[in-house]
Amino acid sequence: MMKKILLIEDNRDLSNLLASHLRELSFQVDLSFDGESGLSKANSNRYDLIILDLMLPGFDGMEVCKRLRRRSSYVPILMLTAKSSETDRVVGLEIGADDYVTKPFSIRELIARIKAIFRRIDELKNSHKENITTLVRAQNLVIDSIKRSVHINDRAVDLTTKEFDLLFHFARNPGKVYTRSQLLEIVWGYVHDGYEHTVNSHINRLRTKIEKFPANPEYILTVWGVGYKFSDTKIPEALPS
After folding, report:
1. Do residue 121 and residue 166 come from a single domain?
2. Kindly report the CA angle at 56 between 111 and 158, in degrees rounded to 5?
3. Are strands 178-179 and 227-230 parallel, antiparallel or unpaired?
4. Average pLDDT per 10 consecutive residues for the chain, totaling 241 residues
5. How many domains are there within the chain?
6. What is the DSSP annotation of 122-180?
7. Which of 142, 180, 213, 234 is in Cβ range 3.0-4.6 Å of 199 for a Cys bridge?
8. Which three-class secondary structure string do you get for 39-88?
9. 71 and 144 in a common domain
10. What is the pLDDT of residue 6?
């Protein structure tokens, strides 16, 4: 089935260029040039992905993203930003964006990010169909991949999309060491030089949310000179789904 994308971007030349490339790949693309109309379209139609510019007239991209994440239905969000500061990217991810691309970017990179998001969602749907373990407990940590929820000592933990994906992948593979490049490929679906810091920042934020002492983690451990692993002293068990 043809994937449907909503592109919310106030630069009309860029919007038309991106739409042309995406339609050549058989995506159906709707355009919106400000935050308010984009939010209205997103609420009135079903989309498989929303590409959202950060700097928009009216509601900015952050506000649109926050409002979309208040809905019960989930749609992936790829954020575009001309800002290069890490703070802006982190805030975007914290409020619910699935990924980001910093302007200027290449069409090839954007398409790779889009395909990676769709591939991750398709793999998750297939895992549910194949009855792959969806509920995992590791000591006081419980992860439910269907509800996309995490609890520690019965306390709900609010994770971003990528933080959850990282944690669930680690928990299903305790003791296995992953390099940053491997995690980029597995969780983000792509590998680009210079983006390995993305893994570091996500793991640091994840630790602040699930670890009692983030500087001395119990669950996600650093393997110096290599990468990260989920502690093999806290072997997760699969629970009935």
Report:
1. no
2. 70
3. antiparallel
4. 92 95 95 95 94 91 89 84 68 76 88 86 61 74 87 89 88 90 78 68 91 92 93 64 50
5. 2
6. HHHHHHHHTT---EEEETTEEEETTTTEEEETTEEE---HHHHHHHHHHHHSTT--EEH
7. 180
8. HHHHHHCCCCEEEEECCCCCCCHHHHHHHHHCCCCCCCEEEEECCCCHHH
9. no
10. 97
- Same-domain check for residues 93 and 193: no
DSSP, res 236: -
pLDDT tens, position by position, 168-192: 989 888 899 999 888 887 887 665 5
Domain boundary among 110, 127, 144: 127
Give the number of other Cβ atoms within 10 Å of residue 230's Cβ: 24
**Cα separation, 223 vs 211, whole angstroms:** 17
